[in-house]
Design goal:
Oligomer: single chain
Helix content: over 70%
Strand content: under 5%
Distance between the termini: 62 Å
Length: about 160
């Protein structure tokens, strides 16, 4: 009986490396869940100029982050770990700055999200390097695809800052 490719891949890493990779993925999972709900916070509460366009943009970004969450969680499990994806677990583990709950105007939300997406993209680039250092090109490739998507999201947000 042949083994599933994910099982074979998991066997390529020693236990310490697998634990480090799963911890990296769970940290990213926490940050991504936090960013997703901060984006949804902006979506629910945006007011002012460009309301409709920003309302739609924030919702699209939230949906995109949902796919990222799923990919990160499934990769952690494929490597033999457990995805720690509850809201409480994510809130306790996230490295992102808390969202300004008093934000109401459109530019307040855009600026807050630009700050958080900038921080997030830096963390994703660090994760690419760490996965490569640990010898897991598949996880590095996952992070590279996340990086590409988040760079585009950040570009869309920064374009919204221009008057």
């Amino acid at each position: 009986m042949s083994k599933h490719p994910a099982v074979l891949e998991h066997e390529l890493f020693n236990e310490k490396t697998s634990i480090e990779l799963v911890a990296l993925l769970n940290q990213s999972l926490a940050d991504t869940l936090d960013l997703a709900y901060q984006t949804k916070q902006a979506h629910w509460n945006v007011k002012g100029p460009n309301f409709y366009g920003l309302h739609l943009l924030f919702d699209q970004l939230y949906i995109q982050l949902g796919t990222t969450v799923d990919d990160l969680a499934e990769r952690a499990v494929a490597l033999g770990g457990q995805a720690l994806g509850t809201i409480r677990a994510a809130g306790n583990a996230s490295h992102l700055e808390e969202y300004p709950l008093e934000a109401k105007q459109s530019m307040d939300h855009v600026n807050a999200l630009v700050d958080r997406y900038s921080d997030y993209t830096s963390r994703v680039r660090h994760a690419i390097r760490k996965a490569e250092k640990l010898g897991d090109q598949d996880t590095a490739d996952l992070y590279t695809s996340v990086s590409r998507a988040m760079d585009k999201a950040l570009w869309m947000l920064t374009a919204s800052q221009e008057a």
